Amino acid sequence: MSKNLSWIKSMHNGSLGEARAKAFLLNRFWVLERSIDIDGADYLIQRKLTRQNYSIYDSSCFGIVQVKFFNSRNTPIYIPADYVLDDNNDPRLDFYLLVFTGDEDNSEIYYLSSEDISKFVLNETTKKFEIKYDGEMEMRYSGTYIKVSKFKESVQLFEEILNEKAVIYTKDRWAEFKGFSIYSQQYDLENNIKLSNLDLNIKIGNNIILEFITDDIEIDYIKLRDIGIKTLSEICFLDIKTPYKFFHFCDNDGNQFEVGQYL
Length: 263
Known about the structure:
It is built from 6 helices and 17 strands. By secondary structure, the chain is an alpha+beta fold.
């Protein structure tokens, strides 16, 4: 790419990122703009304090937002340390970073506080934090569950086999024993609870499912897609006992797995 085209693309990405950021922020804050970029402030945001007198300046009401846009997650972002840290080298409470990527139909947004940024590597020469995608998954093994067609009979069977009662019993839908759980898909169908498209294609019998838990389901969904997992369901939501988001994916042999996040 020529220097001229590279310069134009950089300007375009900057404008695109700031436009998306402003639309995102306006739904949540009052947004102020500076004519000059100082301390990384693309935008100043203020909480919507409808009774606040504008003539009284209260710094705790304001936040500084810097915006970045990149075409690839492999592109590192550099943030000067003095934007992020105060005079005591503690993360500032008023600085935030919004990072955008993707086209109109596949737009993604990442939010980082100063504390988040301070966990990345600081280059002692340039005095800048280098923020880059590490490719590591957040999900971890959570458990195994078995889909059954006759829920009560299956629970009774395992209670007799194991000589123990189910630990958790949720509306004739979910029962937990030590090491595994039993799940009635029929309950979800009868109560119009949304199932993933992969769930609907799994037949009852020989369908033990490994379950993973994560703290950020959207990030792990993207990472699985990026490493080449071709069979991914959509992200679903249910709220029976505890709000829960989940999706399913299959390996090359068609084995189904679940990734979930408790909210």
